[in-house]
Design a protein that fits this description.
2 strands
Length: 632
Amino acid sequence: MLHAAYLMILFPLAGFCLLAMFGRRLGKPRAGWLATAMVAASFVVSIVVVAGLAARPAGQRSFTQVLFTWIPVGALHVKVGLLIDPLSMTMALFVTGVSALIHLYSIEYMDHDEQFPKFFVYLNLFVASMLVLVLADNFLFSFLGWEGVGLCSYLLIAFWFDRDSAATAGKKAFVVNRIGDFGFLMAMLLIFTKLGTLDYQDVFARLGQLSHGTITAIVLLLFLGAVGKSAQLPLFTWLPDAMEGPTPVSALIHAATMVTAGVYLMVRVSPMLHLASGASLVIAAVGVVTAFVAATIACAQDDVKKVLAYSTVSQLGYMFLAVGTGAYVAAIFLMICHAFYKGLLFLGAGSIIHGLHDEQDLKRMGGLRKVMPFTFVTFGIGWLAIAGVPPFAAFWSKGDVLLGAFSYSPALYALGALTAVLTAYYMGRELFLAFYGPERWRKAGVGGGEHHAEPHDPSWVMKLPLLLLAGASALAGLINLPFHPSWDFLETWLAPVVAKVLVHSTVSTVGRWELALGDAVLAFVGVGIAWKLWGKRWDLPSLEPAVLRAGWGIDAMYDRVIAQPGTALATFMAAAVDTSVIDGVVNGVARAVRATGDSVRRLQTGFVRSYAVGVMLGVVLLLVWMLTRAVS
C-alpha cells in the first residue's frame, strides 16, 4: 500500500494536465467535476497509505519511495523521493480532504465565471504543489513544491486580473513571498555547504557535525521562509489583500495549502530547532506577537473575508508559538482543527457573498439568519470552534498551545490568553453583524432589492462541504484528548517523528484542569462581550478606530519607508543614470562612430582622376621611403 504513495501527487497533477489541454472542451460543470474527482482520488490514496503505515510497528513508520534521480551534478545528488511518515501523511490527509470539499463547493460558486475551466486548472496544480511540498524527502524537492504553491497563489489571487485591486494583490503576494524564499534558499546553501546533502534524514543524522551557531543560522533562515509563506510579522501584509481572489481560493490558501507550509516546515526540522534554543525563543515571540496584532486588526474590519484573513494570521501565530515552545504536536493539532473551521468559515462567507450577489461589507448585511438558516448554523459552528468554546475543536487544540506556552513562559501565555479573548470577540462581532440586527441589505439595495432575488442558502453542492466541515469542526478535538494517556491519538501517531524533541509540559494534572477551565472562561468572556456590544447594534465606530482599520499602519509604513523611496530612487536612476550616463555613453559612442564615418566618407569622391592621383602619390611616397632605407 505504501508504494502507491506517488499517486497522491499524480492524480491532481494529471487533473491539471488534462484540464489544461481539454478543459475548455469539457466546459461547465464537467471540468469542475473532473478536478474534484482527481483530488478526491488523492484523498482516498492518502487513506490507504495511512492504513498501511499504521499497520507497521511505531518504530518502522517511515518509508522513503525514490522515483528517479533529479539532479546528479558533482557532489549534489538530488532525487525525486517521497518521505512517508506520520507527519507527512497527517498533512496529506487534511490537505487532500479539505481541498476536495473546496473543489466541490467551487463547482457551483464559480458557475457564473467565464474562466471556469482555467480556475480548476490552477486549483489542481495548487493541490499537487502542496503535496510535493509535504511529501518530499529532501529540502530541494520540498522547495519545488514551495515555489509551486507560491506561483499558484499568484495565479489564483489575481484570477480576476481585470480588476486592478486583484492584479495588485497577486503581485504583492508574489513579491513578499520572494523575500521569505530567499531565507529558504540561503538555508539550503548553508546545509549543503556544511553537510554535502539535502536529504532530511541524512541532514538530521549529521547534526552533530554542525556548530550551535550554524544550526541557529539555518533555523532562522528557514524561519524567514516560513514567515513569508505563513504570513507572520513583518511579512503578513500580503495575506489580507489575497482576499481579492475568488472565495474558494481564500479557503484553499487559508485552510489546506500555502499558509500551513511554513508551520509544517518548522515541525519537519524540529530536530534542528531542538538544538537552537535562541531560535526557538525568536519563533515563539514572533508567533505570539503576530497572533495578538492580527487579532486587534480583525476587531475593526468590515469586509467579511478580511476578518477571516486576519484571523488566519493570528491562528498561524498560535501555531508558531507552539513550535517555538517545543509543543510540536499542539502545533499540528491546531493546524488540523484550523483547516476544518477556517475552511468552514471561508466557505460560509462565500455562501453569504453568493447569496447577497457579491456583497462583502458586514455593515450592509444583518438579519441573514432568517433567510439563510443553513449558512447561519454552519457558520455559527465554525465561530464556536475558533472561539474555543468547549467542546468544539479549538478548545482542545488552542488549549494545548496555551499549556505549552504556560510551561515555557508566563508572559507568552498571558499574551496568548488575551488573544484568545479577542478571537472570540471579533468572530462574534462578525457573526452578529452578518446574521443579527436589522436587514440592512434591503436598504442597501443588495440581495432582496428591486432587481435581485431574496438571499437564500445554496444548493447541495455548496451545502455538503459546509455540513462536513461543520461536523469536523465540532469533533476534531477528539483526536487528541487530554483525559487519559490512551486518548492522545495524535501525539501517539506523531511520536516516531517528534517524540525525541517534544517538550512535555511540567504542569500538574490539577494545573491542567485549571488552565482548561480558564480557557473556557476566556472564550465565554469574548463571546459575551461580542454579544453585549454587537448583538443588537451594528454601528459602533468608537470600537473600530482608524488605526486598526488600517492594520496599525504597517502597510502604509512599508509604503513610506520602502515603496516611495524605492520609486524615487528608480525615477532618479532612470533620469540621471540611465538617460545621462548609460544612454549618454552609448549615444556618445554612436556619435563618435558617425563623425568618423562622415570624415572618412569625404575621401570617397567618386572621380577616377582623384583615385589615380592618390595612387600615384602613394607610389611616390613608397619609393621615397625605400630610397631612404637603401641610403641609410
